[in-house]
Amino acid sequence: MTASARPQKRSFTIRGHRTSISLEAAFWEALRELAARDGVSLAGAVERIDAERGDTNLSSAVRVWVLARYRT
User: Which residue in 37, 40, 23, 42 sits closest to 70, CA to CA?
Assistant: First the structure.
């Protein structure tokens, strides 16, 4: 496994609650790019995904959201 394939952990505050997300470098890059396209910060994009994820793990929800955005 290469270093870039290892998940990288980042922390965010969402609605006053501190949480962390572990994603591979490629997903962090894609999430940053999509957030910029939407005109929101990285934290803003994560907050939007969190609001729509239901019971899904947040890291998994981010990966699925990124994949869905690239498919459309």
Answer: 37
